[in-house]
Amino acid sequence: MSDIPEEKEESLFDAPPMAEQERMVEAILFATAEPVTTAELEARMPHGCDAAEALVYLRKRYEGRGVHVVRVGDAWAMRTASDLGFLMQKETVETRKLSRAAIETLAIIAYHQPVTRAEIEEIRGVSVSRGTVDQLLELEWIRFGRRKMTPGRPVTFVVTPTFLDHFGLENARDLPGLKELRSAGLLENRPPLGVTVSDQDDEDDQAVEGQSELFED
Amino acid sequence: MSDIPEEKEESLFDAPPMAEQERMVEAILFATAEPVTTAELEARMPHGCDAAEALVYLRKRYEGRGVHVVRVGDAWAMRTASDLGFLMQKETVETRKLSRAAIETLAIIAYHQPVTRAEIEEIRGVSVSRGTVDQLLELEWIRFGRRKMTPGRPVTFVVTPTFLDHFGLENARDLPGLKELRSAGLLENRPPLGVTVSDQDDEDDQAVEGQSELFED
Amino acid sequence: MSDNEFQEDKLSVNERLAAEALIVDVEGFEGPLDLLLTLGRTQKLDLRQISILQLARQYLVFVEKAKQLRLELAADYLVMAAWLAFLKSRLLLPPDPKDEGPSGEELAAHLAFQLERLQAMRESAARLMARDQLGRDFFARGITTDVSRVRKVTYTATLLDLMQAYARIRTKDEFRPFVMDRDRVFTMEQALERMRGLIGFAGDWADIVSFLPEGWESDPVKRRSATAATFAASLELVKEGKLVIRQSETFAPIQIRKKDQ
């Protein structure tokens, strides 16, 4: 491109006022993951902007604030003030996905509570490791419920308000049943040959029954 | 823990001055992409801080800037001013285009929540495909709400804070045109005609207006 | 629908063109209400003042035309057509004092309400999508790793994970993609072997059902499997030139006979 049309453009469209340029630099630095050079800033801003000058004003504006405009090499970035680092400790909490064993155990407790360890094992078809239960207890997503009035009086597990809070539920009864999961597309597999529709309904009823015990009181 | 040591602590270490609290809120909100509730803010700040008050000052400070302090449900976040979106082409994430059915279903859930699948189908006049609900659940724009106290106790759908955040809404009451729709009676759940009288009575109880829960206060 | 032709004649050229355009687009409609709404718009009226009677006529004309053009209309459309025909008769005939159901006017008012509500939701959806959106018009912080000091591991899961896990457990018995229930499946190979032994006796036309293996006739699941396998095996034998197969009409018994050599 030759210089002539650009000059013409410059005279036609003046660069935005400096206050506006400052806002632009502020928004770009905020939203961009990497530090940004003044050249990159100007490439993204309207023609005729002076990013370096805008940066001077912006830096001044953030002086003494909780957030600073800092220079990183020949680029610029926004960072939290270093004296407030102690507030960021929670930010570095590393969240990991629950293991499949743990999420399945949790799901069974949520849908069938109050439920004993033996019952969980029967539903999952495998034994439940101590670590899995301990992890769920530690997360405060499950707690011990009342003992079952069956031989051995085994302890039961129930879900906690922390659990409801984490999963955005008002109560465990709001969990959708199998039929609803299926109609929401969360259950892709279809019943195979030999499973009649009435079998299916039985299963749904069971899930609801497990819950009703708990909530009747 | 008894109350006494806490009181002692409070008298020994006064809460930081409000200007300092404002810096702290600024740093935390700045460093966190997700909205943060005032409760979470205060849990991270020194004892005795008033995050709500600090937020009032902070919001004012960012008025008209390139970055704003916005409310999302009962949480707060920093977001770039939307008039500067044109600067951000580089940051824009290509989102999967929603189908017309998905967009309409989303709008119906937002305006009529809590709403059952049958009610959505009644409004649209066609059945809701599993893929549509699945997609909205995956985007975390909708979630299961509490069950309706009607025969069959169907699950309901409601919109999430992620939905509010995405569309820049403080809460579901700010949906565009909500008041007009309500006063025009278009959020009413009128039962279809031709049902028997006893059914009608049952359904009248259910004919609460959409969004009623939100307006209880 | 005796007044259809009369109705068609009354349509102006523009209306007729619009109706034809609609028919071409029939698959673009999301159900009968959507179609009614589009037809209603051609009345160029406020939805509150729409003539339901006229709308019902337009709809019925539309469905009739679609039938003439042999377009496949989903059952929903035909159900709505039947309902609108009923509504039309209610609106045109004097009310029967013995009839307790809702009056034609009430039914029409409800339909008008449904249309207005759908229209309102459409507009709301459009307004919602026109709003500034996160990640398109306004943006969250680009990085959130300013500080990294204390590392604490916590575990998380979403409601979706939870529900999917439960669904997985409760359906694990049904979800066995590679394990077929062999004892209830009659394979084509088995059927073919059986048929090869039997076709020598099939000199005359015989119902394919009579070739089902013993003990597979009563249980519906087993019968389905055996029938499918026997049919497939028959086709295979026809291909090999050993059998002739025939069926007089749809759903009539399928008959086979040994091919004359």
TrEMBL record, chain C:
PANTHER family: SEGREGATION AND CONDENSATION PROTEIN A (PTHR33969:SF2). This is Segregation and condensation protein A. It comes from Aliishimia ponticola.
